[in-house]
Amino acid sequence: MTATDFSKYLTAFLTKYLVNERGASPNTIKSYRDTFVQFIDYLIHQRGMKLQKITLSVITKEWIVDFLDWLQLEKKCGNATRNNRLAALHSFFKYVQFHYPDHLFEYQRILSIKVKKHKKENINYLTIDGIRLLLEQPDATTSKGRRDIALLSLMYDTGARVQEMVDLTVQDVHIDSPHTIRIMGKGQKVRIVPLMEEQMKILLCYMKENGLIRSECRPYPLFSNNRKEKLTRGGITHIVQKYAQSARKKDSNLIPAKLSCHSLRHSKAMHLLQAGVNLVYIRDILGHVSIQTTEIYARADSKQKREAIEKAYIAVSPDVNPLWVNDDNLLDWLKSF
User: Residue 188: left (phi > 0), alpha (psi -120 to 50), or beta?
Assistant: First the structure.
């Protein structure tokens, strides 16, 4: 079967351009790949095309828009997912227009498709008491429970994303003082996050118990399952959900109905902000590219807003009651205007 230009450039885009030129993370590449799996599925089953007949010349702006609408109507995707799929398609056609400009006008029409506005959910985070209750749930008398305590406490203290926790290895932990941990974030960006003594004690006990202090264990996953394989995103999500459900039974006011792994990251950011830590330091700890991303926590923290307003408040209103309060006849007072 003769290869089409679409298959040729899509293969180069996913396996060479994103990896070598963009330095995209495996998760980004997987997300982009999933977009094109769905797009090809749409072309075959909704447009009646054969795979070997899909070429760049047949893809139009109208087809892309129809595909995005199909995702929402048939696959029940939200606006955020639709926008992510559009971002992948935009990236591909930006790449193609420089390597195969024969259909440049249509590529530019596709690139003109706008993202859809979507309602941003409120930041879901736990109070200090909520975090404390969550960390009390694992059974510290069992090996698995002690692993989960180490996992959850490290996830909170570092504000790490779930994938960042998955990718941690033993050699990322700097055991000697000052204690730090090396985290590989989005776009293969590395950040060094300090670890407090209390956190290091928990982590060190876990590592010693599981024989992870030995030099030959340095490349090993920091957190693994019963089969000594590194925990997956799904595995860590299951752990968080399990203990959240347990904690919610004890105090539903402290544990919201919707709690994700990312909620621990949000919680750490909010607690740092409430403690007066500069946004620049919070940005560096979380691994945000821009301070604007970190500012969402400042906008969300109503407690800090109230304290700032109260601190800066100057009373300017007269400390007297309105005339009509002391007037026995409100109607006479109103008529006097």
Answer: left
Q: List the beta bridge partners of residue 180.
A: 174, 194
Q: Give the pLDDT confidence score for residue 304 in this predicted structure.
A: 52
Is-contact 133 255, C-beta < 8 A?
Answer: yes
Per-residue pLDDT at 95: 96
Mean pLDDT by 10 residues, the chain (337 residues): 86 93 86 95 93 93 96 91 95 94 94 85 83 95 95 94 94 93 87 92 95 93 91 94 95 90 90 86 84 72 54 53 55 60
Q: Write the CATH number for 93.
A: 1.10.150
Token pair 């946004």: residue: 279
Which amino acid is residue 128, in one-letter code? I
- The tally of domains found in the chain comes to 2
Residue 180: enclosing H or E segment and its boundaries? strand 180-184
Contact present, 224 and 231 (Cβ < 8 Å): yes
On the CB side of 301, CA atoms within 13 Å amount to 25
CATH number of the domain that 267 lies in?
A: 1.10.443.10
Tokens at 225, concatenated: 């399952």
118 within domain boundaries: no
Q: How far is CA 223 from CA 32, 167, 188, 219, 230, in A?
A: 28, 9, 20, 12, 6
**Tokens 């407690």, located at residue:** 303
CB atoms under 10 Å from CB of 160, counted, come to 26
The Cα 21–Cα 84 span in angstroms is 20
Residues identified as active-site: 161, 186, 262, 265, 288, 297
**Domain assignment of residue 60, given as a range:** 5-111
Give the residue from 121, 107, 125 showing the smallest Cα distance to 59: 107
Do both 160 and 292 map to the same domain?
yes
Q: Between helices 26-45 and 61-73, what is the axis angle to 10°?
A: 100
- Name the one residue in this structure whose structure tokens are 């992870």: 212
> Would you state the structure tokens that stand for residue 79, as one six-digit string?
């606006």
Query: Which contiguous run of DSSP H or E holds residue 193?
Result: strand 190-194
pLDDT at 207: 96
- Those residues with Cβ within 8 angstroms of residue 1's Cβ, 6 or more apart along the chain or in another chain: 52
